[in-house]
Structure formats: C-alpha cells, structure tokens
Amino acid sequence: MELEATEQRILDAAEELLYGRGIQSVGMDAIRTASGVPLKRLYQIFPSKNSLVEAYLRRRDARWLRDLAQYVDTYDSPEQRVLAVFDWLFLWFNEQGFRGCGFINAFGELGATSPAVADSAKAHKNAFRRCLADLVAAADAPAWLTDQLVLLAEGAMTTAAISGSPEPARHAKDAARTLLRTAHTGIAPAD
Amino acid sequence: MELEATEQRILDAAEELLYGRGIQSVGMDAIRTASGVPLKRLYQIFPSKNSLVEAYLRRRDARWLRDLAQYVDTYDSPEQRVLAVFDWLFLWFNEQGFRGCGFINAFGELGATSPAVADSAKAHKNAFRRCLADLVAAADAPAWLTDQLVLLAEGAMTTAAISGSPEPARHAKDAARTLLRTAHTGIAPAD
DNA sequence: CATCCTAGAAAACGAACGTTCTCTTACGGT
DNA sequence: ACCGTAAGAGAACGTTCGTTTTCTAGGATG
User: Do the chains contact at B121 and A174, CB–CB below 8 Å?
Assistant: First the structure.
C-alpha cells in the first residue's frame, strides 16, 4: 500500500511550506504542487486544511522531542546532559530555513482563533518542560531550575529566529551553566 | 482638525484586533466596524492594510518601550532597575487580553513573506536589547549579561502567552537576580 | 470485448477578503 | 435658495482560497 508513502510526501511538503511561510500564507494548491499529490487524493487523506495542519504539528512535535532526546543521550554526565540541550538548540538554529519554533509561530498566528492549535502548542511546551525537568532532576539540581532553563531555551528560539543568528544558543548555555552551578552549590535565590 | 482623532480611533481598534486575533485573521471590515470609521475614510488615512499594520507595529513599539522605561524609572538602585524589567513584565502578563509579544507573533506569521514586518520585529527587539544594555551598564555588570537577560525576558513572554500564566515573569526575575549577583561578584562563565 | 471502477488533471463553486465605486445626504458659501 | 463639495453607508468588483465536481483515460474483471 503506497498510502503511507503518499501521506509522508504530503506531510513533508506541508511541513516545509507551513513552517517556512506561516500557516495562513500557504494555500492547499501550493501543497498540492509541492507534494505532487492531486487535490482529490490530498483531501481523501486529510479531509480539511485544519486536519493537515494538526497532523503537521503532531508529527513535528514528536520528531522534535525525539531528536532532542537522542542528542542528549550522547552525553553521560548529568550536568552535561542538561547543557547539551543548548548545544542541540545551536545545531537547530544553524539549520537552513530555521524560522523559530513552529509551535510559537502557530500559536501567535492562530492560537486566538483555533483551540486545536493553542492546545497543540501548550502540549508541546509542556512536553519540553517535562523533558528538561527530568534532566534537572537527574543532575540533582532543584526543581525550580527547570522553569529558568525553559525560559532561556524559549528566549533563545525567538531571539535566534528574529535576529537570524544562532548565537542566542551560546548565550543561553552560558546562562544555564551559571544557574546550574549556582543551584548546585546550594545557593537558592532570595529577595 | 479631527483627522488626528480619527487616526487614533482606527489605530486603537486595529491594535486590539490585530494583536488579539493575529494579523491575517482580521479583515478590514472588522476594523471598520470596531472603529466606526467608514471604509472610505479609513482608506484615505491608511491607503492599504499593509500600511495600517505597519502603523500598528510602529505605535506599539514606541508605547511599549516608553511604558517600560517609565516603570523602570520609578526605581533608584541600578540593580533594582535591572530587575524592575521583570516586574514590569509581570504586570504586562497580567493584563487582560495578553497574548504574547506582538512582534514575535507578527514575525512568526508574516516574517517570511513581508520584509517590512520582519524588519519591524528586528528593530523592536534591538531597541529592547539596547534598553537592557543601558540598565546592565548602569549596574556595573558585564556587557555579556545583557544577552542572557534578553533571553530570560523573551522566554518569559512566549511561555506566559502559551501557558496563560504570568508566573514566567517571576521565574525570569529569579534567574536574572542570580545571574546579576554572580556577574557582580566577578565570577565569569567558563567552560 | 464490454464494463465498471479508480485516479489524475483541472475547472468550478461559494465564501471571504482587500479595495473601489455609487448613491444618498448634509453642509457652506454667494 | 442654490449649487458644489465632502462624507457616510453599503454595494460591488476582482482576486484568492478551501473545497467539490467534472471530465477523461486506463486497468482490472466478467
């Protein structure tokens, strides 16, 4: 059955266009042209643009988290594994066509009008936070460090996107290292 | 001349809609209805939707930076002035209808297809960075701290928007305080 | 060989949008 | 009072887009 292959062709083309240009800037005709799949078959597999957008977000969410986890797993030391997140961000920011986090972009564009998109962004960011929380716990760092590292990572994504430079990943890693060391030596933040 | 007043009425309505729903989700007719200004006059003042969008971004940029600077100016100590940025973010995140940074949202939606929007976002973020850099310099902190604080602030904006909670501002302030103290005591990050 | 079913290409449809035009109304100057 | 001007309300126009339909051809089946 080549249905699976056709679905992948559609999703590959859709992801490049939807992520690269923004969701509402891409028409179904552009996805048809890019994928080479006729409109009729396209609508047989994805009965609406909404369902295609949701499939795009689902697949991107899964792949993004999987790739991150795989990269982190190439490190052994718990502290290095925490910091490896930011090395991976640096690699991501250097990819051709990088245009920020697809979920932040989708949320900004459609979060107010589409609960499905808003929920998808929330779920993706929650999953990322959980991933980071596990790494923080494994490094014997206090749980509140997680929230701070999340902010550094999210800030790096948008700053890298808008500035067009991957450097924010390095700055985020520098800050993360400082916070990790400070937390590790037991100095808790106070007012 | 009530032209000025009409322009403000249009911009007020446009900002609430464009920021609140996303740019492409808002039609000129909705802006007409919300502002009460007839389409004919609307197009006399803003000859296209693009020009209205750019005016919206220009005005929001100026007001946002002005409000931030005004808030920071209510503090005296250089360190407090740096941290006040995050207190101000907390206030902003608590505003009704908060939906993240309008420039991050606009960039995600239209940055790839509209150089004007992309440049506007770049300029806004550069201006914010300069503002933070001045506060960092006044606090006798090293210049590289600026980039780290920028990431915390940007991350707090998107995280607060997607999670729907203002707490990221507090977490960002906690992290900023740690980084500021560490930097101030002369401990530079190393590998 | 005839027939039915499927699939691809592209036209077509209905809605929405950005933009312009028309029609009516009211006002200001002589 | 009269006429030129502008302004408001909304229809209209041309385009784009999501979605559906039509038309044509080929391939499997009896």
Answer: no
